[in-house]
Specification:
The chain is of the alpha/beta class. It has 3 domains: about 100 residues, Gyrase A, domain 2; about 130 residues, tRNA modification GTPase MnmE domain 2 (Four Helix Bundle (Hemerythrin (Met), subunit A), Up-down Bundle), CATH 1.20.120.430; about 150 residues, Rossmann fold (3-Layer(aba) Sandwich). It is about 45% helix and about 15% strand. The protein has a 7-stranded mixed β-sheet with strand order 3-4-5-6-2-1-7. Strands 9-10-8-11-12-13 form a 6-stranded mixed β-sheet, with helices on both faces. Strand 11, helix 10 and strand 12 form a beta-alpha-beta unit. The longest helix has about 35 residues. It is flat.
């Protein structure tokens, strides 16, 4: 049995409730020492029942709280667990935690509750990472992908691949054990046929990484244009709130300003850039240089022009900067005024002042980046660590296929490497440092 750990599982601060959880062999004993409920003896406590009573604090005071006992293995960690639901408050919550520690529990390391769940077979390693994704999700799409992975579907499919590799190793071993039999040619043919199927599956997961990166990082959208074309007004219209300062004074925006919204489950990261022009102002010049950098780094460029006037030298300079790029959407602002500017192919004419056609911009961005509908019922690789392992597995698998003429013992060694690389996703591998790294990303109490 493991030692008993404790931690605060809710954010510190004022609130309706705080939850302090305990896990380990002495959980029930500690509960009996600190929690008292009328007409309830320790032997009578029923798992998964909520009890109302008094928590005896280490300073001699009592706190009215709720308490629930989870008997292992039917708990989050797979071992005996107790959770105390107390009134929210930083000082009170810390005092409850200290009282539990005084009875022999130690403060849990970051992610230790979930690590114990993994070690006790309650979840696979990829499911643990999906929990991190659920906690850190900033868009509906990222959350949906994480919730799907939390069901363990990826682990099932990766383990199926590992089982197939194990069968290949067994067949190679049989061939090596009976060299007098002419099994090698038939065995090789069967193994390499299966390896090609494995490679195809791995490449499908590798292709899903594009959507995974999109869901996790979102789309970086730079709004570029000369001064006073309405970049800040357009940003405010896209956000649905007044976030950027708007004036008729040239050079108001002197640095890049970043804000995000969610559209159809995807995070849109808008960057309002300084108007590009020749300026003697040192600070504005730095902002203009950052604007030029944003043009190179953005996934989508909204090139904003003023429809109420003809192109000036600054407009022409910006058009030359975006010329030849295939991620540009031309936005002609100020449709509430008489049109003077020439037409641009594929342009969207808007009025940031009246919110005219603002939704068209969002839809155009979505269509440009999300060329295919994202299937949230399929496994989408979000974790960069998992993506790296999938990429490594593809290389190893391809390398094995390219070495069909090698001896069976060398092929077996390479298949073992592939099995171990896939195990870095499920947790069935020989590298303990990977497991420690993943759980260190969790917050205390999870």
């Amino acid at each position: 049995m493991s030692d008993t750990i404790c931690a605060i599982s809710t954010p510190l601060g004022r609130g309706a409730i705080s939850i302090v959880r305990v896990s380990g062999e002495n959980s029930l004993k500690i509960m009996g020492q600190l929690f008292h409920c009328k007409k309830l003896e320790r032997e009578e406590i029923m798992p998964r029942y909520m009890y109302f009573g008094d928590f005896s604090l280490s300073n001699g005071s009592k706190e009215k709280c709720l308490c629930v006992y989870f008997k292992g293995p039917f708990s989050y960690t797979g071992e005996d667990m107790v959770e105390f639901q107390i009134h929210g408050g930083t000082l009170l919550t810390q005092l409850v935690l200290e009282s539990i520690q005084a009875k022999g529990a130690r403060l849990a390391d970051a992610g230790e509750f979930t690590k114990r769940a993994f070690e006790n077979g309650k979840i696979s390693l990829d499911m643990a990472e999906s929990i991190i994704g659920e906690i850190n999700a900033e868009s509906e799409g990222e959350l949906r992908a994480s919730l799907h992975l939390a069901q363990g579907f990826l682990a099932e499919k990766i383990k199926a691949m590992q089982n197939s590799l194990t069968e290949m190793l067994a067949e190679i071993e049989a061939t090596l054990d009976y060299p007098e039999e002419d099994f090698e040619a038939a065995t090789k043919e069967k193994i390499f046929k299966n390896l090609k199927n494995t490679l195809s599956e791995l490449k499908n997961y590798q292709n899903s990484q594009k959507n995974g990166k999109l869901l996790q990082e979102g789309i970086k959208i730079a709004i570029v244009g000369s001064t006073n074309v309405g970049k800040s007004s357009t940003l405010n219209a896209l956000l649905g709130e007044d976030r950027a300062i708007v004036t008729d004074i040239e050079g108001t925006t002197r640095d890049v300003l970043s804000e995000s919204i969610s559209y159809k489950g995807i995070k849109f990261n808008f960057i309002d850039t300084a108007g590009i022009r020749d300026s003697s102002d040192k600070i504005e010049s730095l902002g203009i240089e950052r604007s030029k950098q944003s043009i190179d780094e953005a996934n989508v460029l909204l090139c904003l022009l003023d429809g109420s006037r003809k192109l000036n030298d600054n407009d022409k300079k910006i058009l030359s900067l975006v010329k030849g790029k295939n991620n540009v959407i031309y936005i002609v602002n100020k449709s509430d005024l008489p049109r003077v500017l020439e037409k641009f192919e594929g342009e969207i004419e808007i009025s940031a002042l009246n919110d005219k056609n603002i939704e068209q911009i969002k839809e155009k961005i979505f269509e440009q980046v999300c060329s295919e509908k994202i299937d949230y019922n399929q496994e989408i690789i979000i974790s960069s660590r998992q993506a790296q392992s999938i990429g490594n597995a593809v290389k190893i698998c391809q390398n094995i296929i390219d070495k069909q003429d090698e001896s069976m013992d060398i092929i077996a060694m390479l298949i073992k490497n592939l099995w171990n690389e896939l195990g870095k996703i499920t947790g069935e591998c020989e590298n303990e440092s990977i497991i420690d790294l993943i759980f260190s990303k969790f917050c205390l109490g999870k």
